[in-house]
Design goal:
The complex is a heterodimer.
Chain A lengths: L1 H14 L1 H10 L15 H4 L10 H27 L4 H27 L25 H22 L7 H23 L26 E2 L2 E2 L8 H6 L7 H8 L6
Antiparallel strand pairs in A: 1-2
Chain B lengths: L1 H13 L13 H11 L1 H5 L11 E2 L3 H25 L7 H25 L19 H22 L6 H25 L35 H6 L6 E2 L5
Parallel strand pairs in B: 1-2
Helix pairs in contact in B: 1-4, 2-6, 4-5, 4-6, 5-7, 6-7
The chains are: A mainly alpha, B mainly alpha.
Chain lengths: 257, 243
Amino acid sequence: MKAIKIIETLNSEVNDKAFSRREAFNKGINLGLKGIFAAVPLAMLLKPTKTYAGTTSAVDVLNFALTLEYLESSFYTMGISSGIVPGSDMAVIAQISKHETSHVATLKAAISAAGGTPVMEPAFDFTAGGTFPDVFTNYATFLTLANAFEDTGVRAYKGQAPNLLGTDLLTAALDIHSVEARHASEIRRLRGQKGWISGNMTAGVPAAVYAGEDNVTQGGVDVTTVTTVSPAYVMECFDEPLTMDQVLAIAGPFIKS
Amino acid sequence: MKSENLQDRLQKIFAAPLKRKSFLKYTAVSGSVMMLGLEACHKDNNPGEPTTNPITDVGSGDAGILNFAYALEQLEAAFYIKVNSSFYTNISSDEQQILTDIMNHEVAHRDFFKAALGSSAIKTLTFDFSSIDFTSRAAVLGTAKALEDTGVSAYNGAGKYIQSADYLTLAGKIVSVEARHAAAIRDLLMPKTSSFAGDDVVDATSGLDYSRTPNGTDSTHPMSIVATANTFLTTKISATKLP
């Protein structure tokens, strides 16, 4: 059942690109560039190659995660080579870079072990077609995108956890998920933000990254009605998931081919 | 309004006389981090100690895991309430803001679990933090770091035993916030170093955070999470039906 759902999701991305684009823009993801989504074949990269019952879903989830890890890994590698990371922050950025590179290798191994084929690394354009032209010349822009990628990564893994329910792959995914959250906290604080997401405050990050983060209803309970803690804190203390489609819409502009 | 509520909470949680136990008599700084690795053996091997409270078992299945999480959130909330009741000496405004935020997050987590579990919820636990010198920055932040890292590994480790996709998502919503806390606390202790996601807690080769089951131990963690929690609990917990 879950496998079918994922395949349908992926197929709808492949077959109905125009709709996906429109939907993405309607959700306010317009980064100021027209046609940016047209060049995004991310769903093609994620096209299921195996149809073994019980494994397709997990492999697709991991390939989706691998694509995001390629993006992060490449981003930090390029950031460090560009020379814009100040010495005072280098220990932090280098540690994150090390983890993202490790995550790529870990996920590749997990995908192969699960009988799947790891997707190839796409080519990236971290200016997103010119939306962030100074990403590797202006450290503030670099950190803004790092913030966006880390918080998106946290939400992406969270959104896929149910598709790995009850498996050891879930544990691996959760163990990466919390590392991304550590990264997100640190990057946010380097930017002078709180380590946690305050409602859907964007601080220069594309709004889609925080869509729905102002939710206060958890497990059917409006948490604001069962605690004396203020609603702002209730929003902060639960991170929200993103669907695969939402994540693809955010990551898409940075993927060239 | 909020300070009144805080007062209420403080009174409720700390009104009961603290039972100082011999094994908890540790000095200030070592008390924080060291005790998490060492003290279980004292406690567990002390059957002669009078039991004033029956052990609370968290139960089995998803309710057991959620109650286990509820116990840890009760512990974290109580700790940060105590931290916030009188901050350590020379605390910076940044640190104060972080510790206030975290207290509110943990209290909301605790209250959420209590409401969500309803009649299945374990009772309100009582705590003994007498081993911690709350006037010491190193002791407070060292304990906070240990609690947050433990929370992260506990949620990560429990994940695969959760049967309901909805509960799994809920746990996921909380664990990443705990990881954000852990990174922030670690950064306060060792600013702008690799410590926020240090090699001591994130495997340097795989890039994976730790995951631990409630009763599991390993060479890095000779003491289980349940045993660690019990060092701070006057009402002990067990998780006999969980891994």
